[in-house]
Design goal:
Blueprint (H helix, E strand, L loop, with lengths): L1 H18 L2 H5 L3 E3 L6 E7 L4 E7 L5 E5 L2 E4 L5 E5 L2 E2 L8 E5 L2 E6 L2 E7 L2
Antiparallel strand pairs: 1-2, 1-10, 2-3, 3-4, 4-7, 5-6, 6-8, 8-9, 9-10
Amino acid sequence: MKNTILFFLLISSINLFSQTDIVDYLEGRKFKNARTGLVVTYGYISHLNTSGMKFTNSYGDNHYFMNCTIEKSSDERFAVFTDCMNVETGGGVGKIVAYRNKLVIIASDGEMVYELIN
């Protein structure tokens, strides 16, 4: 009986995890590129009063990107962020494909993978 209950709880938690809105799931999570040390966080940026991406380099400098267009896959497995505007320069960041365990940033000169660290 205990095994049946544990199995049911496990299946329920996996199903709940897979149905969580991908953008809500990303809120506050940190992703790091092992090669460059850049850390990316998605969430509410209080001093800008909006949600967006925060890029932090190894020196602790922060760069913010906001006003992203977000398209979610129908199965909530990933979301694509485009047209993110850099607050300081007005430039963009390319396209960001966000999965639950990694971010892939695609630019004209290639792509970089950021792994989930929390």
